């Protein structure tokens, strides 16, 4: 990774963007550029719209389910955060969450979220959320909320210098480009068409798009621009953190696989996920996700990530360990 430097939030505008989002305390001010799409995101209308069944009891349904046919971890974390946030006052904002994925989520049934009020203090409140299916926990999650407080202590790393999202292709555009190549194997075509068919409610623009047949080992690092597909809006700023929780698990753990092109994942699943929210942000505006894996071993891998606002303000940090059971690849490549 590039040498880390620190800067105050007011120092950094490293993306080349002229947006005027930041202020000294990182609060969002007027954004001159509205999100590209004005249709409400499915994340608002369904995925992160939980049904309240009773006091501290919620039910969530699914949207996109990965090909593994186990629920997407980001969806479960995002929904758990929605449930927790609904039980605290508007002056409290999630600043961190710590989760364990203890069982695979079943896409055939909804998930129940049971919230326990662990503590309510003057500045902080803590909630413990259990996500339940078939009477058993699939996720346990602690969320801590904090009221906005000023501080003379302020620093952050500097956002990596990367091309702006306007200069990059979306995953779908890249897939169409790859599909137009004449020498494509049938297996590769199938893999690409699966990517197109997946209804992931996010827009992604990789900064360094992978070669279609990834043959060389790369550093376990990647960068991509990401935003919610569709409008989240300003009505409920808490929701942007829930969307970021959803986003933060997407394509995160496979960062640990980038150094091993000769192996493919036989079984890959996140075991735990932690997230810290540093500043306000709009998850329907482009954010840069900087992912790296400092370690892999013992059939597990660790990944760490930073979500940057495009004006260079550090929005959130993430950390995850996952199980990585691999098998050597057969000569014919099958996916990006
Ligand atoms: C990638 C981003 C994501 O969103 S992933 C989704 C979120 N995360 C998850 O769904 C993970 C949820 N957690 C879990 O499913 C469990 O905690 C897991 C990780 C499976 C626990 O692992 P473990 O204690 O090994 O479970 P288990 O004994 O029930 O076995 C599950 C399957 O794994 C196999 N397994 C077990 N040990 C080994 C081993 N040493 N070497 C190879 N395979 C092993 C078991 O045979 C079993 O396989 P199968 O399901 O019977 O095909």
Automatic annotation (TrEMBL):
Residues 1-37 are annotated as: Disordered. It holds the Pfam family Acyl_CoA_thio. It catalyses: succinyl-CoA + H2O = succinate + CoA + H(+); eicosanoyl-CoA + H2O = eicosanoate + CoA + H(+); propanoyl-CoA + H2O = propanoate + CoA + H(+); decanedioyl-CoA + H2O = decanedioate + CoA + H(+). Transmembrane segments: none annotated. Its main location: other. Residues 1-21 have a biased composition (Polar residues). The keyword Lipid metabolism applies. One of its GO terms (biological process) is acyl-CoA metabolic process. Its EC number is 3.1.2.1, 3.1.2.11, 3.1.2.2, 3.1.2.27. Signal peptide: none annotated. Residues 219-323 form the Acyl-CoA thioesterase 2 C-terminal domain. GO terms for molecular function: acetoacetyl-CoA hydrolase activity; acetyl-CoA hydrolase activity; carboxylic ester hydrolase activity; choloyl-CoA hydrolase activity; fatty acyl-CoA hydrolase activity; hydroxymethylglutaryl-CoA hydrolase activity; succinyl-CoA hydrolase activity. Belongs to the C/M/P thioester hydrolase family. This is Acyl-coenzyme A thioesterase 8. It comes from Echeneis naucrates.
């Amino acid at each position: 990774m590039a040498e880390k430097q620190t800067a105050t939030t007011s120092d950094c505008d490293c993306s080349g963007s002229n947006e005027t989002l930041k202020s000294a305390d990182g609060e969002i001010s007027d954004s001159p550029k509205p999100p590209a799409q004005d249709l409400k995101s499915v994340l608002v209308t369904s995925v992160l719209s939980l049904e309240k069944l009773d006091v501290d009891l919620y039910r969530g349904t699914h949207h996109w389910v990965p090909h593994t046919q186990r629920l997407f971890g980001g969806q479960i974390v995002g929904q758990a955060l929605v449930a927790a946030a609904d039980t605290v006052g508007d002056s409290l904002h999630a600043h961190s969450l710590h989760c364990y994925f203890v069982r695979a989520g079943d896409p055939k049934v909804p998930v129940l979220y049971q919230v326990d009020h662990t503590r309510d203090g003057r500045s902080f409140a803590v909630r413990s959320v259990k996500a339940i299916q078939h009477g058993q926990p699939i996720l346990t999650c602690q969320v801590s909320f904090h009221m906005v407080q000023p501080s003379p202590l302020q620093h952050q790393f500097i956002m990596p210098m990367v091309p702006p999202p306007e200069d990059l292709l979306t995953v779908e555009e890249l897939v169409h480009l790859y599909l137009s190549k004449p020498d494509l194997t049938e297996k590769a075509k199938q893999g690409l068409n699966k990517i197109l068919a997946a209804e992931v409610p996010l827009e992604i623009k990789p900064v360094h798009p992978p070669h279609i047949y990834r043959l060389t080992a790369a550093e376990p690092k990647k960068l991509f621009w990401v935003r919610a597909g569709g409008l989240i809006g300003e009505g409920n700023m808490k929701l942007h953190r829930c969307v970021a929780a959803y986003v933060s698990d997407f394509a995160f753990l496979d960062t640990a696989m980038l150094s091993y092109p000769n192996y493919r994942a036989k079984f890959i699943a996140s075991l735990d996920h932690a997230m810290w929210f540093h500043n306000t942000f709009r998850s329907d505006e482009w954010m840069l996700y900087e992912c790296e894996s400092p370690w892999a071993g013992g059939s597990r891998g660790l990944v760490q990530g930073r979500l940057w606002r495009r004006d260079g303000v550090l929005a959130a940090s993430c950390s995850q360990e996952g199980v990585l059971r691999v098998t050597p690849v057969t000569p014919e490549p099958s996916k990006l």
